[in-house]
Amino acid sequence: MGKSELRNNLRLPLALLALSFFLLPSTFAQDTTAAKPDPKKEEAAALLACAKAVLAGFRPIAPTRDARFEGKVSEANAVCRGGQQTLQFRLTPWVDWQQYWGTGDMSSLPSGFLSTKGPEFRGVTGALTDLEFQRIELIKFNLFDNSGTYPEFIAGRNGVGGPALKVWPQMRLPATDPNYKAVGGDGDQVCTGDLVRGRTVNGICNDVRNPLMGSTGMPFARNVEFETAFPDRGANVLTQNRHGGRIGLLKPDPQVISRVLLTRTQSTPDKCNGGFGLPNNAVNANCDYQKAPFFNVLAAYWIQFMTHDWFSHMEDGHNATVYIDVGCKTKLVNNVEVPLTPEDVKELGCRPGDQVDKTLVDQDSAPNTFTVGGKVYMARAAETFSNNNTAWWDGSQMYGFDDESVKRVKRDPADPAKLLLQPLPGAAHSDPVTGGYLPVLQPGDPFQPQWAGQESVAFPDNWTIGLSFLHTLFAREHNSFVTEFRKQAALTPTADSGLRDPSDPKRVIRYDNVTPDELFAAARLVVSAEIAKIHTTEWTPQLLYDEPLYKGMNANWNGLLGSGDPDVSKALSDIITKNFGKSKDVAKSTQWYSVFSSGPGIFGLGSNAPHYDITKADSINGGVNHFGSPFNFPEEFVSVYRLHPLVPDLIEFRNLSKDPNQIVSKVAVINTFEGKATDAMHDGGMANWGLSLGRQRLGLLTLHNDPQFMQNITLPRLDSPTKQIDLAALDIIRDREHGVPRFNEFRRQYGLRQLTSYDDFMDPAVRALPADAPARVQQQQAVDQLRQVYGTHVCDASKVITDAQVNEDKTPINDCLGHPNGSVVDNIEDVDTVVGYLAEFTRPHGFAISETQFVVFILNASRRLFSDRFFTSSFRPEFYTQMGVDWVTNNGPGPAMIEQGAPNGHVQPVLPLKRVLMRNIPELQPELSHVVNAFDPWARDRGQYYTLDWTPRADAVSDPAFKK
Ligand code: HEM
Fold this sequence. Notes:
Layout: H1 3-20, H2 39-56, H3 75-82, H4 85-89, H5 117-141, H6 150-155, H7 237-243, H8 254-262, H9 269-272, E1 291-296, H10 297-310, E2 323-325, E3 330-333, E4 336-339, H11 342-348, E5 355-357, E6 369-372, E7 375-378, H12 396-399, E8 411-412, E9 415-419, H13 465-491, H14 516-543, H15 547-558, H16 566-581, H17 586-597, H18 617-620, H19 635-640, E10 650-653, E11 665-668, H20 675-684, H21 686-695, E12 697-699, H22 708-711, E13 713-714, E14 724-725, H23 727-737, H24 743-749, H25 764-767, H26 774-790, E15 792-794, E16 824-826, H27 833-838, H28 851-866, H29 877-880, H30 882-890, H31 912-920, H32 925-928
Antiparallel strand pairs: 1-12, 2-5, 3-4, 6-7, 8-9, 10-11, 13-14, 15-16
The chain binds protoporphyrin IX containing FE (HEM).
Protoporphyrin IX containing FE (HEM) is lined by residues 300, 303-304, 307, 311-313, 319, 462, 464, 638, 641-644, 646-647, 669, 715, 727, 730, 734.
């Protein structure tokens, strides 16, 4: 290695090391009384604090779970990164970094300082360092596999620590699998040949040495200790003490919670009509909802589209055949559960007759236990549930995940490399450039009766207009890739396509030799990777609209170095996969792997190893890291993606060929349910629906914001007296069925600070407002309602309630949560996780989700990249074709396009979804030319640095959505 190469190799580790200097133990006494000094003094004080922070040295990674970081830094670090104003905030339960300089809009930069550059740098890099610290601790403390590997994760195997293990017997294909012999039968199992070329239908052979990992039907994992799951069973003394027998499947009553805490209040109920709007989609319909100014309805549908790729508890649209009540039966009066009176039922608007099919259970026999170091562990959770989808980010909602779903994926007989898209005969709208529409399910296709009349896709459940839009868009994108490939093949038929067959690796596959099946498989890889890139670099930075998350998400994909210095990235990628990825040392293979991968980025890790050989497992699988726990989503991940409040009741429909600034009708989402979505799509056309979903703001994830129509939805599949269900209540019931811990323990398990009363939900800045300030009144009302629904009790300080954390003085946390023994305390421990995360009024700037949801995401969003061979070491032309690699890298055909100006100070490529939309719905190009991020409401003026202002861009001032 030459000197300059060595220097290059060291540059990032050193930079990371330097960053780490800002992370220090909390050894400073808290002083919250200091008055705000003048800017010069504050600047000096901040610099002094930085010096103190550096002198105090590194903060160690927590040796045990009760010594975790909790997102709280020392006073010196806080002042260094955000000045005096961070000190008061340190006393709250919420993570510190949201107060650092530069992490909000312009107002988060200090005023009166000689330069804002230094503080901004310290603030933003400080936030990134805190986030990396959280990720390392999450990897260390929050992986709990349910498929039988957990005992080895704790005990290790043959002297290798559990987190450094890479292969598990539980991930072998069973003898009943049709590919059992092909992967090696009862000998060593390694996938080869056709099984490794692309994404398989049911997800086997992504990890070639663990063929079963992530495939359809594998159990959901957990991110919380097994003992903590299913708290209502009171299986151990800690859960008994924590909840005092107060909680159960229907306790507190989920429909009562829904109606009191989650209902959208309506100023003009007649014009909303329970979410159905007015006849003929009249434009004067109105359903009030709380709107997020920086995120559009397309983004809401995007995440539903994603969850249909990642997971499903249901099997082909159904649950178990047993039906259960879903509440509207009891309420708390003076902390005693009493039956609801008919008047209560009327006033609440709930339905005691509703029933729902129970969730499907995989295993519910008593789990084994094992003992390591004198401690007894459960080998899995008390119950497990199958993920009936592939856990991979493989476009399975489009391309299929089992033998049945794949039959709904229609290929074009004229070119079987393409998906079937058809023109619309006699469509009412004008859609001059028709990329085609998905075919409708036909008799003979495998589908549930309720899906009749819908477009034919692999995952057809809960279909409404937005899913119709996104499925059609990405089917068009699939075909765009094939078309471009065919063009190139016509131009250079004998040129090397880059593709290789591992069964015949020496054979150069020329463009004209690529078969339709090979091209279909390559297009699937490209579209899936594009989707992952959109999600990572476009959706998430708009969901979490601030500078640290922009940098953090781009680091996950491109690395902190960006694409600026590809040689450094390559060298680092190699160092990481070789030295850390293969290491048997637990710290190297987990925490250092995580830190250092921020350099080159996770995407493509291991893909440029020297002597890469597609016949060798070491090459094609060499870049993945599962951190000792086979990859699948945890139940807790599903819980934090129950995002039903994102959906508005009414879509403001616009017509591109008339005036995009005009709302011409209001279409109820429920009137686009199932087959009606297909009709609505055919009537409105892709361009108009794109415009409408792109311009409208989505619903804030907060209390009192669940759609009206969802609380009263009729599900044809239900064999119950009312056939109706309150989806907000069902979200709560499902989490309880799946044993998701309640909110406060959920936070402790994830290394976040607990709350000690309902009042803690209030934003400290709002609490400081006068008592009659509207924001304070609103939050106080929510706190009162939480108290009404969940209640209070007299606490007993002798009862320890958790072992996940301890108090600051190292004493165990008890039932009184710091309040005097025998006092009346809030039943904060009982709050359902869904309710708790919606009640978080304190959030980092631009966060559409709460910090509790976000922490789940920090862990799992990077894991699903780290674990997937096709996003790491198999991101190569041999699998994707050379055109495919370039397409994913450059966001489409040809070289990368650069966005105009420097949005939020960044010179950046035109983002991938914007390009997908422009490519496949060219009618939208003029509208999109002003748009930077396709998930930011399209007519919003992005203004200065991360503003959340709701103001129109110059040509949209007449848009009624901007009326005050
Ligand atoms: C737009 C209209 C939507 C409708 C009609 C709808 C309907 C439903 C229904 C009926 C269920 C199944 C409940 C059960 O039996 O367990 C469900 C589950 C779920 N929904 Fe939605 N939903 C919609 C939008 C969304 C959105 C925007 C998200 C955002 C991520 C979302 C996330 C989920 C999740 C995570 C589940 C649980 C899935 C599972 O357990 O595997 N939904 N939804």
